[in-house]
Amino acid sequence: MNDKPIFDTERLIPAYFKLALPVVFSMVITLIYNLADTYFIGRTNDAMLVAGVSLCSPLFMALMAVGNIFGQGGNSLISRLLGKGDLGSVRRVSSFCFWISLLAGVVIAVPMLLLRGPVLGLLGASENTYRHAESYYMVIVGGAPLVILSFIHSNLMRSEGMSTQSMICSVAGSLLNIILDPIFISGLGWGAWGAALATVLGYVLTDIMCLLFVLKKSKVLSVDIHESHVDRGEFGQIFTVGLTAALTNIASSVCVVFMNQYLLPYGDEKIAALGIVLRVTMIVQLILVGFSFGGVPLFGFLYGAGEKEKLNRLLRFCTLFLCALALAESLIVFLAAEPMLHIFIDNTAIIADGTVMLRWLISGMVFCAIVLLYTCLFQASGKALQALAMSLSRQGLLFIIVFLIATAVAGYSGFLASQLIADVLSAALALVLYRVTFRKQPGQVSAGGTAA
Prior knowledge:
Layout: H1 12-42, H2 47-55, H3 57-84, H4 87-114, H5 116-123, H6 130-142, H7 144-159, H8 163-187, H9 191-216, H10 232-263, H11 268-293, H12 296-304, H13 308-335, H14 337-344, H15 348-362, H16 365-380, H17 384-391, H18 397-410, H19 412-438
Helix pairs in contact: 1-8, 1-11, 2-6, 2-11, 3-4, 3-7, 3-10, 3-12, 4-7, 5-6, 6-9, 7-8, 7-9, 8-9, 10-17, 11-13, 11-15, 11-16, 12-16, 13-16, 14-15, 15-19, 16-17, 16-19, 18-19
């Protein structure tokens, strides 16, 4: 490896955008895939098919959560190890994350296939939607090891500064998915089964391309099974930080289940409306996620190198930038809510319900931006407890508490307002945790995580 630094810390803002923009671009392609998936399913005008596939979205988020345990947990540790110059440990950690994710996928897939009936019932499948939900479920769960694996190298490559290569892999998989969707869903008439198969095949392509980049281009990452070992402390850092990232996805899944269960008495059409709205909301959220997570390698590197002043300067810029971006995006979606929903389905009742839901959900995105950014900061710096608190906030335990109180007090109106209330409270929690954690003592932050 040459002596050229991995990150240009003298030009922080350009270095941040160099890392973040490829992540954002890959998120935009992922967004296009999600919208295309929703579009081709919605264009069937089969509300039960839309609802059946929507019910399985928590399943996909759960698989993403497992991938993020070792993807984001490994990313955080590797970034800090690179800041300290410990390249041997980087190879071991990266190889361990690769192989353990494959094993985890197999361990998860087998019982979930055997217990599909009870799980689908928990997700809210009714007599009308069960057939579609089961078709989608079986393919996604069967491909679980490959879906989980896709989150490993796409994260670890960014820790080395290979954001562009990671983007290429994610984009290729998403484009294949988009191409296959209309062929499988409508052309061959495979419906939900075809949508799921297109998704899994897209992740297979991402896996293959990521592996090729690591083998041919990476200077520090490894997939050598003989190097696939970590000590107890390293595993603890991977797992605790990664688990907080995973809990964000798991908690999101639980929250969607809560919302779907609440809407069951109102009819499957409202569940279909919520499914489409959640996909459209990703227009704003995925871009914010991209800019937030794009900075993680640089946050971790600066923290590992003990560069507190530079880390604080970068964080101030990111906070202002992301809040402004969230506000601009939210205003556009709020004003264009009804025509946006009309793109995906031609059903007056679903569009009417969805428009109201979308405007409420999008109203808290400025606060969501703060939550995402500071969660990433805590993960990058190895602050597992603080990251855990954030993971259990806006779409976790805090949301569920708000949701239960709001719906008990105000019924359906409380259902609509609960996410906005949770967003505001979560953003306040993020700022308090930041001040307590990073400003309780003067001086420079050391690589070990204490003030020097």
